[in-house]
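Entry: SUI1 domain-containing protein
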Amino acid sequence: MFKKPVRIKSNNQVKGSERKSIKDLFEKSFPNVPKNDINNYLNNKKDTLNVVKVVTHTNEVIQVYLLQKQPILFTIKDSIYPTVFLLWKFPELLQSFTVHPQVMNFISSGADLMLPGVVTPPAPLNKYGNGIQEGDPVYVNTSDNKAAVAVGVAHQSSFDMERSNGRGKCVVIHHYYGDYLCTLDGGSWTAPNLGPPEWLIKSDVYEEEFPALGESETKQEESAAQQENDNVSEDEELDMDELLMHTFLASIKYSKSLILPVLISNFFRVQMLPISPELDLKKTSFKKLKPFLDEMAQQELITIKEIKKGVEAITDINRTHPKFNEFYLKPEDRPKTIDEPLNTPSTKVTESYVITANVAPLFQEANYRKGDILDGPNIRKLVTEYVKQNNCQLEDNSKLIRPNTPALKTVCKTENPLAWEELFEKVLQSMKACFCVNSTVNKGKITPITMTVSVRSGNKKVTLIDNLEAFGVNVKEFAKECQHGVAASTSILPAGPGKKYEQLLVQGNQVIFVHNLLVEKYGISKKYIRGLELAPKGKKKK
């Protein structure tokens, strides 16, 4: 997640009043740490606590908390995770998995932790943790140092790991020592040497795996590294085979757009890929789709026929086959069509303003500072409170304000009385406009998503969509949805002169489809979408 550089969207110091809520969140998320330890760690007001919003290379917005410039916590969606630095301080926060040091070469290259790479304790200790559930936060340490080196979530429960016979994925890695999260605020931190895990020192594994001082370790390390490399490759292939089978069964059992016969080439592109965009056929043991489908045909799950020379299609699905009947997906996990209601939260757009040095004194009493963001209603409320606290209303006419404080004189640029609305207007003019899309802050005024229809060579129409990214829409994913939804080619064009975001081109006049997709799936209000009037005549809006 932090393997590639991240972009900082905002960096604000946490106010004293907000520290308590962060401390409460800490206690709730990690009950294993004594309250006194948490209080001593977070309540020192001399230690600056900042909250930083960053955008990853996948355009995911993540909130990071830094104590004295050291990242200690980060959030992904609604979950909070400790960094390796915080785990050095409080190793009891989470359960851990131990690996040999050379395994970190693979994790640092972006790989998740596979079960063959885990050093497991002997009986009667729990081999893969104590009651870990799928999705639980965990961390990784090494056999020569129990200090955390990576943080992530369990890919499966302890029980399932035990049953897997040492195969498959163990931890999905979110953050590791040395990634871009570690250097977020320019800091450089050295991992402490806490010694090997206690269980490893007391066990025979420690003696077997680590030769006595003076013995040659190079050959053993090379052998272990090669073995780990082989295991990782095998398990990646195994996992991708499982994903391939899962996607295939989901396509033939739950797809509502599947119509037989379907060409093999179209089946993968239209049915399977939208379900699992991360599916890479080259990383499966089959390497290509055709051998896999031939295997499914041999198992009598499907029937494949040559409909014309060199062109094959799936013509029938065996809905009585045990694998077909055993496969089950919860309704919320099944493939969706555009017309189905999706459990996607609405996109909340809020017009806001950044506090500047000129207006900062107006909000000082409410503990807001330069750089903080406020929406219009809160600005009116706080300015009204400021005016009344400083007795700036005329005694004989409460509808007029006398700019008789240094801050109001600076903002209004006059000492003459003025009306409330004029005062609010002056304040807003002295602030920087921005808008918040969910939790993401964008500079400047809101620019709506704009659809235009243009004619290209051959008198062919195309639909151009601008400003998708301003509303948190991933252009690549949106392009795929358009491509599959209207069976039309798409392309992403670089931002033109005077434009900030990439432009999406969709073949044909697809205004209605794009409009409905934005409103129904992404929850974007119609008032932020322009161009519906360009829809083809004779087609009614759904």
